[in-house]
């Protein structure tokens, strides 16, 4: 499952940055309906009072969390945005990789602004690489991943993803472009990845596209997939994947055995 949770806030409208107060019980209710083994979260927040993702994991009863702080939050003063992988199964390995710097003039309201750091995460769960990322929203800053220097930046992001994965892989992410198939399709196809959602899927109210997508490598077959229409500025995306490779299946079965790792949501920084 992948979900941009915007700090645990519902959207009041389709206008940018029009959010309600934090409502984590709402954000816990939907994963309970979907019942995923792994949840990739974008736009969690880290602040003096803790982490949205870790609070969500505690509500759900998922014991394993890997979180990466990224940049100052556009939602709350004094907090930072983060990526997080929340898992029912043990996380055996985890790493974060800063995405390449943006070499574009980013503007908001006609004024140039400095780009923020963005990251990709890769964790290993049951012998499966799970990748989470959220590149910068170039469209918000007057650029596109499909034109000009944005094309090269997308290529660099794809190269980072290639570098951090090897073997059975699931990418579940907010790619921050309305046509990720057009932007990253050739890169992911070269990696043997296929998309769960159809190209005509819509995952953001008011967007003519699906920035939120799940890709899986040749070791998997998508059995079912869906977009849950939530009261948020990104809808929840999920996919049921069948493991087609016997070795991967054995690793996953072992991970599903009673957890002997003794780890908790705070074990992986």
List the defining traits of the structure above:
269 residues, alpha+beta, Deoxyribonuclease I, Chain A, six-stranded mixed beta sheet, five-stranded mixed beta sheet, 17 strands, disordered C terminus
Helix-strand blueprint:
Layout: E1 2-4, E2 9-11, E3 19-22, H1 24-34, E4 38-47, E5 50-51, H2 52-60, E6 64-72, E7 80-87, E8 91-98, E9 106-108, E10 111-113, E11 119-125, E12 128-133, H3 149-164, E13 169-174, H4 180-190, E14 194-195, E15 212-216, E16 220-228, E17 236-243, H5 246-256
Write up this protein.
Strands 8-11-12-13-15-14 form a six-stranded mixed sheet. Strands 1, 4, 5, 6 and 7 form a five-stranded mixed sheet that branches. Strands 2-3 form a two-stranded antiparallel ribbon. The chain has 269 residues and is of the alpha+beta class. Mean pLDDT is 92; it is low at 262-269. Helices cover 22% and strands 36% of the residues. The chain has one domain (2-256): Deoxyribonuclease I, Chain A, CATH 3.60.10.
Give a quick precis of the structure.
With 269 residues, this protein is α+β, with helices and mostly antiparallel strands.
Q: Outline the low-pLDDT stretches.
A: 262-269
What is the rounded Rg?
18 Å
Report the principal-axis shape: globular
Estimated structural class: alpha+beta
**CATH classification class:** Alpha Beta
Work out the helix count: 5
How far is the N terminus from the C terminus?
21 Å
Task: List SSEs in N-to-C order.
Answer: EEEHEEHEEEEEEEHEHEEEEH
Helix proportion:
10-25%
Domain count: the total is 1
CATH architecture identity: 4-Layer Sandwich
Amount of beta strand: 35-45%
Query: What is the arithmetic mean of pLDDT?
Result: 92
Could you name the CATH homologous superfamily? Answer: Endonuclease/exonuclease/phosphatase
């Amino acid at each position: 499952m992948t979900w941009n949770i915007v700090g645990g806030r519902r959207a009041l409208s389709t206008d940018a940055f029009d959010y309600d107060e934090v409502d984590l019980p709402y954000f816990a209710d939907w994963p309970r309906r979907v019942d995923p083994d792994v949840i990739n979260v974008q736009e969690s927040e880290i602040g003096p009072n803790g982490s949205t993702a870790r609070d969500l994991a505690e509500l759900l009863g998922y014991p394993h969390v890997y979180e990466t702080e990224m940049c100052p939050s556009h939602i709350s003063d004094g907090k930072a945005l983060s990526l997080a992988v929340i898992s029912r199964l043990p996380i055996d390995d985890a790493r974060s990789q800063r995405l390449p710097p943006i070499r574009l003039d980013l503007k908001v309201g006609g004024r140039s602004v400095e780009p923020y750091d963005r990251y990709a995460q890769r964790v290993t769960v049951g012998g499966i690489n799970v990748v989470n990322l959220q590149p910068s929203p170039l469209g918000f800053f007057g650029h596109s991943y499909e034109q000009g220097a944005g094309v090269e930046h997308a290529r660099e992001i794809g190269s980072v993803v290639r570098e951090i994965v090897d073997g059975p892989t699931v990418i579940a992410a907010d790619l921050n472009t309305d046509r990720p198939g057009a932007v990253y399709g050739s890169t992911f196809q070269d990696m043997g990845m296929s998309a769960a959602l159809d190209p005509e899927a819509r995952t953001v109210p008011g967007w003519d596209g699906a920035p939120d997508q799940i890709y899986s490598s040749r070791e998997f077959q998508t059995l079912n997939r869906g977009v849950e229409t939530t009261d948020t500025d990104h809808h929840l995306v999920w996919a049921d994947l069948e493991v087609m490779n016997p070795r991967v299946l054995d690793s996953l079965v072992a991970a599903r055995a009673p957890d002997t790792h003794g780890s908790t949501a705070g074990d992986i920084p």
